[in-house]
Specification:
251 residues, alpha+beta, elongated, Glutaredoxin, 2 domains, Serine Threonine Protein Phosphatase 5, Tetratricopeptide repeat
């Protein structure tokens, strides 16, 4: 598919939200471009609609060449969700092109996480034990069934994940409350109940409000709040205000 400046947005950027788009920036006078083009076409065709190919003549579309900083051709850029996720410059051997295209396809773990059932999440966790989007939902399933020790084992394999750390802290707080052992946190049960039904604003208000009286459980409570904010994402309207209030409550 030949693409020009006027339809690049719809044909490539918008389309890349549905399927990975590979864009071949080329020119008719470029010998290496003529070598690479058929290799790309065969590779994309072999993947039967899982990837799509667009071709941009840089001579006819200088604005696109400038916008994507094309300094040498052939230049190949892969787009997903409207942005460049992989690229290379120059004619490449077929094996390298095949590897490039394969890197754009969902992995087995990606597909399993997308399914989201327990068996799929378990398999995804086996394949990629440090993957948070497999471990955290799996741990939530185990926790809901009362298998908290198993849930903690799953979460322990995910270093650097605020969501995993927050869920582990919640399990610790709930266990302490159930046993009436260790520091007690006011309103934590009510906050977790609100969180479980999607009332994030109320849950965050209760959790942050409980910090001043949390005594020895302040760190666990902080970790829970940070985990909730991580789940929401930085762009969520609650996130900025909640982070500010969390910082004020802690410091």
């Amino acid at each position: 598919m030949d693409v020009i400046e006027s339809n690049f947005q719809s044909a490539v950027l918008d389309r890349s939200h549905t399927v990975p788009m590979v864009v071949d920036f080329w020119a008719d006078w470029c010998g290496p471009c003529r070598q690479l083009g058929p290799v790309l076409e065969r590779g994309v065709a072999a993947r039967a609609g899982k990837i799509e190919l667009a071709k941009v003549d840089v001579d006819a579309n200088p604005g696109l060449a400038r916008a994507f900083r094309i300094q040498g051709i052939p230049a190949v850029k892969a787009f997903r969700d409207g942005r460049v996720v992989a690229e290379f410059v120059g004619a490449q051997p077929a094996a390298a092109v095949e590897q490039f295209l394969d890197s754009l396809l969902p992995s087995e773990a990606d597909a399993l996480v997308e399914r989201g059932d327990e068996a799929s999440l378990r398999r995804a966790h086996e394949l990629e034990p440090t993957r948070p989007d497999a471990a955290v939902p799996l741990a939530k399933i185990l926790k809901a069934r009362g298998e908290t020790d198993e849930a903690l084992k799953v979460l322990a394999r995910v270093p650097g994940s605020f969501a995993a750390d927050g869920l582990a802290a919640r399990i610790a707080l709930e266990a302490a409350a159930e046993k009436s052992a260790g520091p007690q946190v006011p309103n934590v049960t009510e906050a977790f109940a609100a969180l479980d039904v999607g009332e994030h604003e109320r849950a965050l208000n209760l959790l942050i409000g409980a910090l001043p009286g949390a005594d020895g459980a302040r760190d666990e409570l902080r970790r829970v709040v940070v985990g909730v904010l991580d789940d929401l994402g930085v762009e969520h309207p609650l996130a900025r205000d909640a982070r500010r209030r969390l910082a004020s409550a802690l410091y």
